[in-house]
Specification:
The complex is a heterotrimer of chains A (200), B (452) and C (403).
Chain A (H helix, E strand, L loop, with lengths): L1 H8 L15 H6 L4 H25 L8 H23 L1 H7 L1 H4 L5 H9 L6 H31 L1 E2 L2 E2 L9 H4 L1 H19 L6
Antiparallel strand pairs in A: 1-2
Chain B lengths: L3 E2 L16 E3 L6 E4 L7 E3 L6 E2 L4 E5 L6 E3 L4 E8 L5 E8 L13 H4 L4 H11 L6 E3 L3 E2 L9 E5 L9 H4 L4 H14 L4 E5 L5 H4 L5 E6 L7 H8 L8 E5 H13 L5 E7 L9 E6 L4 H5 L8 E5 L6 E3 L11 E6 L25 H4 L34 H9 L3 H6 L11 H6 L6 H15 L2
Helix pairs in contact in B: 2-4, 4-7, 10-13
Chain C lengths: L1 H14 L9 H11 L18 H30 L7 H34 L6 H11 L7 H15 L13 H12 L27 H7 L6 H7 L4 H6 L11 H14 L4 H19 L14 H6 L3 H8 L10 H21 L7 H40 L1
The chains are: A mainly alpha (200), B alpha/beta (452), C mainly alpha (403).
Chain lengths: 200, 452, 403
């Protein structure tokens, strides 16, 4: 059980897909102006990544290795279309705000990366853990960035006022560079605290 | 001869220039022979208590076993001292009358014109005087198995301070000429003789070398500058260089057949009494205390073996070096000036124009001390260093390449054409008080270890 | 003074390793070296050292900043008294009023910046670097006099943290920290640092009819098609000589040309400021503006037709190129690189000014952009140097071999 725990906990900090591997930056910038969109995006990615990992893992012994990429992409694309349709059906407003970014999960390096690096050579149970762990690692950072941006930019958190009414919103936090800065600070703090980088 | 003019550089107006007079010093006490060559691993050939003759082998170089380092006097080995990692530090000899000095092949001046490379090397190796000839890159003792592209004789000195060849050559004109002839046997290329505009006739008229005059502020007298202007090196090249004051001793060896026992040292610097700032012919290896006794100003001083820019500090219990012919005495200071950053700077020497002294202060002499004049800071790219290195080298980038351990980049930036001493002025002017020479030295060592 | 030194040294042991206040050594060190030059000795060769240290070099920049600072103080007071129609305002009241407006901004910058700087020195266990003194003064001088003080604090904190410390401190930063701080405020709180209303302090209860504090750049950018920008400027009271003299609203120290030229002269004479960058900037601006003049007036905005000598005295160009672009840490370091870097700043400043209506002033962005590009410029200059030097040696050896 120790390995299963490690599969889940590793991507949360030591091997975080965003702050350590620096994958999935695009969506981390695009959908983190507010908590709400970031949360939905995190859920969407979690759904896609865990199920794609499981499905690809189940298929792993049947996929000829020469065409495995195209199979992986087809699986991921189908899952993304399902998630997109579900969002449109039940959360139409939000899905409009997220616009193409849900669709772009297909190109999210994390999904493809985990399929290639893990699911294709591990059994479904482990692959599920791995998908879940990486989704959580992604989600944690996404929500942290979104918290920072929404609080600094508008003084609210998940739409709730958390700062005094006369708080003057920080325009930079709303712009994409703001996400870069907050992400940079998170990486700085994480690496300083865990000492998880080599200075050579 | 049209002089080659060097414009980049700086003559530090430090007080204490040695007078052009030569005093004889005799000494009866203990003599020390140092193992003062970097990168040399010595193998001892004597034990404590052994009797040695004048010219007898004391230790040899493990890498070049033919290279023997010999005793300049006859006497008893009184002590053998070791330094860090049990490496030989020095051999102390108590002089006494010997039986028969060890002799080397003896030649007349005319014979020396054509003795051939092997005969020349034989004497140089057997006497250890090959150690006075250095090989670039890396400034190590010349490797007898290498035929250098060319040989540079440095007959000038622009650093504060060193012996003046015009003084050292007095009465030994033949020996210097002999030295030049010997060098011409060692290379198929030219022997360059680099002169100061003030060079005396005896030096100017030497036969057998291609003569060039270099004019300008320090480092116009540095060998790297001469190489750069006369016969620039590519990374695979090897050239030899030797100081003219040392060449006299090589000439003496071949003319007399015995190991020279004396050398000329200059005693200079603000810490020396004005009347004592001069040249001295001293027995090689005599104790410093005997030489300096009664010649220094009062107060605490730093005794520097070499010049003030590139020399090594040493204790007063040491002896005169066999390979370094300059002694510079600088007063120690820990003085703190009130609001130094605000002062107009009339009393503080600076090459920069941020102090008034930077505008006209270089006309008078300054009694400089060992004060750092600041604190250590991070490197700031100012381009300031480039003004003091006349070698077509981007110093900031070279330093950065070395610090980043990027040896390939350092080589392509020209590190192999340099010697740490060429960057002493950069360390002198550096506002962050960085040790540029030390960084270059470390870079050269790293490249030497890796191989080019 | 010996007495003072003795008193300092009496407490020194407290801060030295093993002392009670060991962690605060940087603070003690800063205080001692502010009052007295440090007592360090050269450890190795060279055994004598030049009198210049980084403290002195940075102080020279501060001295060069004094003329524009004084002008900024005077002008802030003058503009206040003019706009608020204070009767019988004398020169003295301009100075006092100006000091009341500007000094708090500078003080907040120094105090907040200083706390962060010292905190990092304590954490990283190194001495307080004097570069901060320059950053702490440069930043407020680029702000409008109406800037809220809390924004000054947030700005300088951002500039020092993100602009400098995150990279490892003085000497390691990519961007000029003072400009980073200003750019942060510019994008975070645009309403307080751009527009027409922020350049002069107006009394809260004093609503003045018809007052718009538009800067020359805003006037120039807003000139309708077909009209002459020079006419529009003159109409708004901005003749060339007025803008040269600088008794107009604007960022605190940028308005007048004369004190900036004084500062530049001091920096160049002392050998601290890179004259190549300054000259390059002026040349780049001249070229870019003159090329713009060649564009057909009918198809492009009238701003393109403005002669370069107007551009030169408008906005923050001179202040930026003299004090910001020459920061040795973030600028190009090779001599050729400095020319390229300076020229491109001048060109970019004009392109952003004239070409992008969203940013009335392009100097800040131009310098920050070129800060990022500087290492690349230097890289190519160094590679060129390496190639040339090898070819040079080979050519000389060939001619030597021939005889």
């Amino acid at each position: 059980m120790a390995t299963a725990k490690k599969i889940i906990s590793d991507p949360l900090s030591d091997n975080n897909p965003i702050t350590i591997q620096v994958l999935g930056i695009c969506s981390a910038l695009a959908v983190t102006v507010q908590m709400e969109t970031a949360f939905v995006m995190a859920c969407a990615l979690t759904a896609v990544l865990t199920s794609s990992n499981v499905i690809i893992s189940l298929l792993r012994n049947h996929i000829p290795s020469r065409i495995r990429m195209i199979v992986e992409v087809s699986v991921i694309a189908s899952l993304v279309v399902i998630v997109d349709q579900v969002l449109r059906a039940y959360l139409f407003e939000l899905s409009r705000q997220l616009s193409i970014f849900v669709g772009l999960i297909i190109t999210n390096c994390i999904v493809m990366g985990r399929a290639e690096a893990f699911a294709i050579q591990n059994p479904p149970g482990k692959s599920f853990m791995d998908g879940l762990g990486n989704s959580l690692g992604y989600s944690v950072i996404l929500l942290l960035v979104a918290s920072g941006r929404e609080i600094l930019g508008s003084g609210t958190w998940y739409g709730l006022n958390v700062l005094p009414q006369n708080y003057l919103g920080n325009g930079l936090a709303v712009l994409a560079p703001g996400a870069f800065l907050i992400l940079g600070v998170i990486i700085w703090v994480q690496r300083t605290v865990t000492n998880n980088f080599k200075d050579d | 001869m049209t002089p080659i003019k060097i414009s980049k550089g700086l003559d530090i107006p430090i007080a204490g220039k040695p007078a052009a007079t030569l005093h004889e010093v005799s000494h009866e006490g203990d003599i020390a022979v140092y193992q003062e060559f970097e990168g040399l691993k010595a193998k001892l050939k004597v034990q404590e208590g052994d009797l040695v003759e004048h010219g007898q082998v004391l230790f040899i170089d493990k890498k070049q076993p033919d290279l023997q380092f010999c005793s300049p006097v006859a006497g008893t080995v009184k002590a053998i001292e070791y330094g860090a990692r049990r490496a030989l530090y020095r051999v102390i000899i108590e002089p006494s009358a010997g039986d028969q000095p060890v002799t080397f092949n003896r030649y007349t001046l005319d014979q020396l014109r054509g003795i051939g490379r092997d005969a020349a090397l034989e004497n140089l190796l057997a006497s250890g005087l090959l150690s006075l000839i250095r090989q670039r890159p890396f400034s190590r003792i010349a490797d007898a198995s290498v035929t250098p592209k060319s040989i540079f004789v440095n007959a000038m000195n622009t650093a504060p301070f060193g012996p003046d060849i015009n003084v050292a050559v007095q009465g030994r004109e033949q020996a210097l000429q002999a030295g030049v002839h010997i060098l011409t046997q060692l290379t198929e290329g030219p022997v360059y003789l680099c002169l100061a505009p003030s060079a005396a006739e005896a030096v100017r008229n030497l036969d057998g070398a291609e003569k060039h005059v270099f004019e300008g502020p320090h480092p116009a007298g540095n060998t790297s500058v001469h190489i750069h202007h006369l016969d620039p090196m590519l990374p695979a090249d090897q050239v030899w260089n030797v100081k003219a004051v040392d060449l006299i001793r090589i000439g003496e060896l071949f003319l007399n057949g015995t190991l020279p026992t004396t050398s000329v040292v200059s005693l200079a610097g603000p810490g020396v009494q004005e009347t004592a700032r001069a040249h001295y012919r001293v027995p090689i290896g005599m104790p410093l205390s005997a030489l300096l006794d009664g010649k220094l100003e009062s107060g605490e001083h730093r005794i520097v073996k070499g010049n003030a820019l590139a020399g090594v500090a040493m204790k007063s219990a040491e002896h005169v070096s066999a390979i370094e012919s300059a002694l510079t005495i600088i007063p120690e200071s820990e003085e703190q000036y009130f609001m130094g950053w605000l002062a107009p700077g009339i009393n503080k020497l600076s090459a920069s124009r941020t102090y008034l002294s930077g505008w006209n202060g270089h006309k008078r002499e300054w009694k400089l001390t060992t004060l750092l004049n600041g604190s250590y800071r991070s490197m700031v790219f100012t381009g300031l260093y480039d003004k003091y290195v006349p070698l077509n080298i981007l110093v900031d980038y070279l330093v950065r390449a070395v610090l980043a351990h990027d040896t390939d980049e350092a080589i392509s930036l020209g590190i192999l054409e340099t010697d740490p001493e060429d960057f002493a002025l950069c360390s002198y002017v550096c506002p962050s008080k960085m040790d540029i020479s030390g960084i270059i030295k470390q870079g050269l060592a790293e490249i030497e270890k890796e191989g080019i | 003074m010996k007495f003072l030194l003795k008193r300092l040294h009496k407490n020194r042991h407290l801060y030295e390793p093993g002392g009670k206040l060991e962690a605060l050594f940087p603070l003690y060190e800063a205080q001692e070296t502010f009052l007295f030059t440090p007592p360090h000795q050269a450890k190795g060769a060279p055994h004598v050292r030049d009198g210049l240290d980084l403290k002195r070099a940075m102080m020279t920049v501060i001295f060069a900043l004094i003329p524009p600072t004084l002008w900024g103080i005077y002008n802030a007071g003058l503009q206040y008294n003019v706009v608020n129609q204070i009767e019988n305002a004398s020169t003295m009241t301009h100075w006092i009023q100006g000091a009341m407006i500007v000094m708090p901004i500078i003080l907040v910058s120094y105090i907040v910046g200083g706390i962060i700087e010292v905190a990092f020195c304590i954490i990283r266990k190194h001495e307080v670097n004097e570069g901060f003194l320059v950053t702490g003064l440069l930043f407020p001088l680029t702000l409008p006099p109406t800037i809220p003080l809390w924004q000054v604090a947030v700005g300088i904190a951002f500039g020092i943290l993100i602009g400098k410390e995150i990279f490892g401190g003085t000497g390691f930063n990519v961007l000029n920290p003072a400009l980073t701080a200003r750019a942060f405020l510019f994008f975070a709180y645009p309403a307080q640092i751009s527009g027409d209303a922020v350049w002069t302090v107006v009394k809260a209860d004093n609503v003045i009819d018809g007052f718009t504090g538009a800067t020359p750049l805003a006037v120039a950018a807003a000139t309708p098609a077909g009209a002459s920008v020079i006419d529009a400027l003159n109409e708004a009271g901005f003749s060339w000589s007025t803008m040269f003299g600088g008794a107009i609203g604007g960022s605190i120290a940028e308005t007048s040309v004369i004190p900036i030229l004084l500062g530049a002269a001091l920096l160049i004479a002392m050998g601290i400021g890179a004259w190549r960058i300054m000259a390059g900037g002026v040349i780049g601006l001249t070229i870019a503006a003159s090329l713009m003049n060649l564009l057909p007036a009918d198809n492009f905005s009238p701003f393109t037709q403005l002669p370069f000598y107007y551009h030169m005295v408008m906005g923050s160009f001179l202040f930026g190129i003299v004090y910001m672009a020459t920061d040795p840490v973030s600028a190009a370091a090779t001599n050729t690189g400095k020319w390229i870097y300076g020229i491109l700043i001048g060109v970019l400043a004009i392109i952003i000014r004239v070409g992008n209506p969203a940013f009335p002033e392009g100097v800040m962005l131009a310098i920050l952009f070129m800060n990022v590009m500087a290492p690349m410029i230097d890289h190519y200059v160094v590679q060129g140097h390496v190639r040339k030097r090898r070819a040079d040696i080979e050519a000389r050896r060939l001619s030597y071999a021939k005889g």
